[in-house]
Amino acid sequence: MQLSHPAKSTVFTAAVIVAALGYFVDIYDLILFSIVRVDSLKSLGVTAAQEITNQGLFLINMQMGGMLLGGILWGILGDKRGRLSVLFGSILLYSLANIANGFVTSIDQYAWLRLIAGIGLAGELGAGITLVSEGLPKEKRGYGTMIVATVGVSGALLGYWVGHRFGWRNAYFVGGGLGLALLVLRVSVFESGMFRQVQARAEVARGNFFSLFTNPVRLGKYLRILLIGVPLWFVVGILVTLAPEFGRALGLTGEVTGGLAVFWCYFGLVFGDFFSGALSQLWHSRNKALQVFLVFCTALVAVYLFAIKGASPDTFYAVCFVLGVSVGFWALFVTVAAEQFGTNLRATVATTAPNFARGAVVGLVPAFKYLSGALGGIIPGAAVLGGVSLLVAFWAVSTLPESYGKDLDYVEE
Question: What are the C-alpha distances in Å from 2 to residues 5, 37, 137, 254?
């Protein structure tokens, strides 16, 4: 059902700027644990290498589990109460959780706060992308989400610098403080006009998460969208977060750290998000840009696992950088999620999809551990898991309707 069209505007709107800064803080806090994992666990008395790995995976699962719960919560609220309320409500929750995280004295405290932070972190990106997509003309919204992504992923670079320079506790304090400071910008942002019009129509059901599963066409699109995001979190959650373990398995000539691997991967993501967004605009096709990046990612995963055995740490970090470029389709993936559904379900999909993809780490971790044991090492285990996730993601993109230039001003019946 067609509604009215949004007013034309420039790309650099207040919504784009605030969403970009919000995503910057979101990524800072989201990836911070991967950066400070080893130092923080050692500070809490975990010293054995295997135990650091196991406890690290446990805490990642708690954070990602929180994001699964938060994705549903914030997504529904985004369609029922508005995109703006979710954008700032989520920032407030994860900011407070991260400040508290700086005071932890036990693994249990750490775990519960990563869960709460994960719930908060689940809302910002989907709400921001939805707000930007609905506020820009259809010919320009790809540029808006490209700006959000390019600025946002650079938050990981600041996270590495702060964590390395000032210690893991102060890094959490800084992340929380940045989020609270961002809340003052709320006064400059207005709610989506599309949402306000749908909100005024009592007969339109909004934020019905379960309606995604009652219509076969909607369900098919939704599941394929989820599958597209899984490879990025295989790369970040397995290959990059466990860089020290992979470094030893590859026989590198020196030790590598998870923090520096994350830094270089996210540095690459800055460029990848820019180029994937730009290509989707240049080619007038989201799907073609996604397919190219998935093929690129497949090649880089193969290089990471099989072509740098016995290499130097510098070579390893260089591969992490290019690997980051290859998975720089994250915001494009969320943009596609937002473009596939009507205004009354858009925030639900755009918020749950990236968090379910992120939350795939909860399933990827035990699958990785099982395959590594069954196949005799983490290299073959990662190769099989990565190959399957990339192949399935390519199929999902290839069978999803093209959404470039689609008019978003409609509702799902």
Answer: 9, 49, 16, 60
Distance (Å, whole) CA 15 – CA 230? 27
Which residue in 95, 106, 102 sits closest to 26, CA to CA?
Answer: 95
Q: How far, in Å, CA of 132 to CA of 110, rounded?
A: 34
Q: How many CB atoms lie within 10 A of CB 270?
A: 21
Q: Do 122 and 64 touch, CB atoms closer than 8 A?
A: no
Distance CA(4)–CA(290), nearest Å, equals 30
Name, in order, each residue with C-beta under 8 angstroms of 374's C-beta and a sequence gap of 6 or more.
381
Beta bridge partners of 2: 410
Location of structure tokens 């497949």: 298
| DSSP code, position 23 | H
From first to last of its 413 residues, what are the pLDDT tens digits of the chain? 444 444 445 778 888 888 888 889 888 988 788 788 888 898 888 888 778 878 888 888 888 888 889 989 998 998 888 888 888 888 899 999 999 999 999 999 999 999 999 999 888 888 888 888 888 888 888 888 889 888 888 888 888 889 888 989 999 999 999 989 888 876 677 777 888 888 788 777 788 888 889 899 999 999 999 999 999 989 988 999 889 999 999 999 999 988 789 889 989 998 999 999 999 999 999 999 999 999 999 999 999 999 999 999 999 999 999 999 999 998 789 889 889 998 888 889 988 988 888 778 778 888 999 999 999 999 999 999 999 999 999 999 999 999 998 888 888 87
- Inter-residue contact 186 to 84 (CB < 8 Å): yes
Q: How far apart are CA 274 and CA 285, in angstroms?
A: 15
Domains of the chain (ranges, CATH numbers): 14-398 (1.20.1250.20)
Distance CA 46, CA 64 (A): 21
Q: At 2, is the secondary structure helix, strand, or coil?
A: strand
